[in-house]
Give the backbone structure.
Amino acid sequence: MSNDAIRTQTLQDQAIAWVVRVHASDMSDDDIIALSEWLEADPAHLAAYDTAERVWIGEMPVNETTATVVDLAIARAGKISRPAAPSRRLWLIAGSLAAGLAALALLPGLWNTQAPVIYETATGQTREVALDDGTKLHLNSATRLEVRYARKQRDIVLDKGEVALDVAHDADRPLSVHAGDEILRDVGTVFDVLRHDGAVTVTVQSGAVALLRAGETSKTPAPERVLRAGNQAVIDEKTGRAERSRIMVGPGFDWQRGQAVYRNRSLAYVVSDLNRYFDKPIVVDAETGKLNVTAVLTLDSEASVVRHLQDFLPVEATESDKAIILRRKP
């Protein structure tokens, strides 16, 4: 049966016809798109589909699958009516309906969502990715993220590391970056997201980014939760508290120019951040880690970075096979 023919039937018949089509061996991509559009057109469509699909699922436990397609096809054509009293077979079917309800609630997402794609970089590696919608991603060192695109939304899940995004805006298909419980919603933007050391740092070069928390339903965030060009926010992953500041953002972000910029950061944090770029870890003891750092470091080599830290700070470096140790000078 064609998709156009299915659409012309009554609601109940449409739902049953779709169930038959979904379980057919020749279900096509066009069928999936058409079903998605039909389900999204009206909540009543999903409810009707749920009912029909649960009947289908209910057939399986009682081993009566041979009659399923025939019965549904007959019902689809309107040739049978509901019996005055339920048969033993219908009672058995009813007993298993609830089992499929949770999975069925996810059906629209199942049909609308493309298979997730994972992108990652090793330590010291960067990578540029052009997505199908025109969005450009630039992954920094030691980064892992997952792209999940659906027909109504675009989601990027940042597991770790840093990514700069040049987003192709689509008002009907917004893009969100998920970093833990933080959701960063694009409004036609070039911005950078770093997830590291228990915090999410968002830097906006152009456009605007709305800061949301997982579970928030408001589509209009408060003004203080919107970052615009030149804004940066450091968000504590545990509390969701955001510390905002104004910074100078040039063409490209600092790391894209081969630099790491630190403003009033502890040496412990700086070392942790630098270790994203180099294979041999830099380590500091607790007391040395309290030193304050404001510096621009060129990420050309680990040896050069360590020399600059010794120039800026009262520290000296020793190197072993496994690490570079920074200690406060006596």
